[in-house]
Design brief:
Largest sheet: 4 strands, antiparallel
Structural class: mainly beta
Strand content: over 45%
Shape: globular
Oligomer: single chain
Radius of gyration: 11 Å
Number of strands: 8
Length: 73
């Protein structure tokens, strides 16, 4: 079992849609959350296989660069 992976925001954006749920198995490349910034949709993807241990955002939230979005264990 590897270390938990923290998925963080790469820019200031609105959380448009939360796709994955806590406890859900995800594969590398799966979309976790869709952010919206300057009328563009930006998918936040899992960078490794695992299970979503934590979701730190909700639809409608505003995230800043570096904010925690999810933890994949």
């Amino acid at each position: 079992m590897g270390m938990a992976e923290e998925v963080r925001a790469e820019m200031v954006a609105n959380v448009w849609k939360v796709v994955a749920g806590v406890g859900q198995a995800v594969a590398e490349g799966d979309t976790l959350v869709i952010l919206e910034s300057m009328k563009m949709e930006i998918p936040v993807i899992a960078e490794s296989d695992g299970t979503v241990d934590q979701l730190a955002v909700h639809e409608g939230d505003v995230v800043q660069e570096g904010d925690l979005i999810a933890v994949i264990g």
